[in-house]
């Protein structure tokens, strides 16, 4: 199989990249391992704002469906239930549909595999009923099943409280929030308000999670002693880290940036990695919010389009400038540290390879340092 | 347990399917994964670990952790969280780890 | 935490085994992997990599960014041998996981 641009990942970033590339006239193949498109937006029932070009709040699932519609109306060739499993020596990407393996030859790849949840261990974390917060969210919103009736949330970040709120709305009792730090991580007033009747154990850990074949008892170790509670669900919310395996396979250099989630590929202002055939987009390029996720997809697509001659340099520069401006604006507003870390990563990489900054980036980046 | 009235989302699944878990016949919704179909029937133990023989179930629901392995229509070590349930499917719990280094796999 | 707590779910390797490996000189995930099988299960360390690196960092005092990543091998995700053998282009499927073949470490 052969194409101009191959997109790996049909989440918001990959879809946004594919739609942008298709619009400019490139032949695009989009590969996703799942049986449906949308990535992690498929279970996000919460509202998001701001989005690129809009302050209006949109439900995650609705945003996903909107992108899927646009994608399906485009000429992009969509390969669902196809997994990128490796690369051939000539850098063609190896894909399998579960029955056969084949190569896709592309001029440029945009890799947007998203993020994964970080595990957190405690005695008994392997027992059925202990799962990531994301798994619980997938079960209630995508699959419409209850993972349990009485839940303990491990971690007190925004995501933990958001999932707790959604579980509660489905009728699950939130027995406790357990946090090993001395204060709650989330500072979202609305979420905190929703959880106001839930016992919070700070400076605390899960001492044990037990049950015969399924979880039914949780012991929490607090500074005041051990608390035992009946619970059949523990949700681990320990944050996300970028998925890096596809980039490792493509030989992309990695760097460690705590604020971006940990290890991730290095990339330049065009979202191009150290392997010139591979662009990066979405949460794989640093854990952020949905607005920037969509914008990184567009910026990456424009870089690839320009290199392949589907877009004039001038046009690409003008578009990129606007997109970067918006990315900086939204990301700085929602999470200043993330934008700073992203700028650092990009600057570091440019320095390393001796690549000059284009005018448009100096502007937004300068903004990051000054205020 | 199945959620019949979701607090914010519209009804998604209309069609019912019958499948089997360890020879027991169960109902599920078409469009659900095998892992969810089992959970809808209050089954959360999907298998046992090889070394310590401990119960295992869904952990990531994202096809990454392999904690949800089951056997489907005779094929062992299928990820139940990323496989859709089908009418008449025969699912059984996973009682051993995949033998990735075994001779049967050419190593 | 109880030292018998599992860290690698797939291979059921506990904290004690990992700390023993570190005591015996392991400094990276891959060292631990060679000594204990931790990370060699069907998820190929996607689940245990983070907690293992945390243990290394804590035990050795090394910051997390200096603890190196496990070396990745193809295929990226679990695939059946029959699937790999069914290469439609026939020619060079071995190169999909040629690396491991080449290293001869498996
Ligand atoms: C379980 C979970 C829940 C989350 N919930 C929230 C939330 O509530 N709020 C929030 O702000 N963020 C959440 N996130 C973060 C999430 O990453 C972003 O919300 C957003 O979806 C990122 O978009 P993306 O396009 O970068 O990645 P994703 O949406 O993750 O999309 C990546 C896509 O790539 C595909 N893929 C990955 N590897 C391969 C491969 N090798 N071959 C083929 N396809 C592949 C995946 O199937 C997926 O569809 C969650 C993440 C996870 C893992
Ligand atoms: S639950 Fe993790 S792979 Fe299925
Ligand atoms: S958890 Fe260690 S290899 Fe899967």
Description:
The complex is a heterotrimer of chains A (about 375), B (about 110) and C (about 110). Chain A has about 375 residues and is of the alpha/beta class. Chain A has nine helices and 21 strands. Chain A has helices at about 10-25, 60-75, 135-140, 160-170, 190-195, 245-250, 290-305, 315-355, 360-370; strands at about 1-10, 30, 45-50, 60, 75-80, 85, 95, 100-110, 115, 130, 150-155, 175-180, 200, 205-210, 215-220, 225-230, 235, 240, 255, 260-265, 280. The longest helix of chain A is centred in the last third of the chain and has 41 residues, at about 315-355. The model of chain A is unreliable at about 365-370 (pLDDT under 50). Chain B is mainly beta. In chain B, about 5% of the residues lie in helices and about 25% in strands. Chain B has one helix and seven strands, in the order E-E-H-E-E-E-E-E. Chain B has a five-stranded mixed beta sheet with strand order 2-1-7-5-6, with helices on one face. Chain B has a two-stranded antiparallel ribbon with strand order 3-4. In chain B, strand 1 (about 15-20) and strand 2 (about 25-30) form a beta hairpin. Mean pLDDT of chain B is about 90; it is low at about 100-105. Chain C has five helices and two strands; from the N terminus they run ββααααα. Chain C has a two-stranded antiparallel sheet. In chain C, helix 1 (about 15-25) crosses helix 2 (about 30-35) and helix 1 crosses helix 3. Chain C starts with 5 loop residues before the first strand and ends with a helix. The interface of A and C includes residues 84, 100, 121 and 248 of A. Bound molecules: flavin-adenine dinucleotide and FE2/S2 (inorganic) cluster (2 copies). One FE2/S2 (inorganic) cluster binds near residues 61, 62, 63, 64 and 66 of chain B.
Count of individual helical segments of chain B: 1
What CATH architecture of chain B would you give? Roll
Give the % helix of chain A: 25-40%
CATH superfamily label of chain B? 2Fe-2S iron-sulphur cluster binding domain, sarcosine oxidase, alpha subunit, N-terminal domain
| Count of discrete structural domains of chain B | 1
pLDDT < 50 stretches of chain A:
367-371
Distance between the termini of chain B: 42 Å
Poorly predicted sequence stretches spanning 5 or more consecutive residues of chain B:
101-107
Give the DSSP E fraction of chain B (strand runs of 2 or more residues). Answer: 25-35%
Shape of chain B: globular
Most extensive interface between two protein chains, with residue counts: A-C, 38 and 35 residues
Mean pLDDT across every amino acid position of chain A: 94
> Radius of gyration of chain B, rounded?
15 Å
Radius of gyration of chain A: 21 Å
Main sheet properties of chain B: 5 strands, mixed
Shape of chain A: globular
Instruction: Please identify the oligomeric state.
Output: heterotrimer
Bound chemical compounds: flavin-adenine dinucleotide, FE2/S2 (inorganic) cluster
- Please work out how many helical segments of chain A DSSP would assign: 9
